[in-house]
Amino acid sequence: MARLSRRFNIKQLIVSETAARRGLDNRPPVRVVRRLRRLAAGLERVRAITRRDLEVTSAYRGPALNALVGGSRTSHHMQGLAADFSCPRFGSPFRVCKAIVRSPLRFDQLIYEHGDADDGGWVHLSFAPKMRRRVLTICKSRGAYQRGLRRCPVDLL
Fold first, then answer.
1. Is there a domain that residue 25 lies in?
2. How confident is the model at residue 142 (pLDDT cuts 50, 70, 90)?
3. Side-chain half-sphere exposure of 113, counting CA atoms within 13 A
4. Taking 60 as the threshold, does the pLDDT of residue 156 lie above it?
């Protein structure tokens, strides 16, 4: 399996349960593999911040897979420049986001996603060319992106 960085290989960044279930080929074109190397390098820097292994749940998504999962038509996932992940041995996705924001890491967009979901949500991080350090939060209960890093409300049942 092609190694993209010290800890990440191509299989880890193209795997998709949805693609496997639906029989979709999620192999990236060569130009995307080059971008996946950039993404892997960025994820290595996050790993250095947390000092713990990352659990990547989604990185590259071909156009068919992206449409199937309801991704944005301009998603950085389709370009091989974004990953969704968690780092349970470091802490909650909110805590991971906080550590990234406090670090000097250069990134394009960090989104704390669905922290009020049953699974606790995840971190979306992209390394697109602009490197805007744009930070957003989206909670299931609010349904819209908000600027900045914010905690999601949780039901107290």
1. yes
2. confident
3. 13
4. no
Angle at 145 between CA 144 and CA 146, to 5 degrees: 115
- What would you measure as the largest C-alpha separation in the chain, in angstroms? 49
Burial code of 23-52, b = ≥16 C-beta within 10 A, e = fewer? eeebebeeebbebbbbbbebbebbbebbee
Residue 154 lies in a domain: no
Give the three-state DSSP class for 108: coil
- The region of weakest confidence among 15-24, 119-128, 146-155 is 146-155
Q: Is 33 inside a domain boundary?
A: yes
**Calpha distance 24→110 (Å, rounded):** 28
Backbone angles phi, psi at 41, to 5 degrees: -60, -40
Q: How many CA atoms lie within 13 A of 41 on its CB side?
A: 11
Which residues form the domain of 58?
10-147
As for how many domains the chain has, the answer is 1
At 54-110, the pLDDT tens digits run 999 999 999 999 999 999 999 999 999 999 999 999 999 999 999 999 999 999 999
Q: What is the pLDDT of residue 1?
A: 65
Domain of 141: which CATH number? 3.30.1380.10
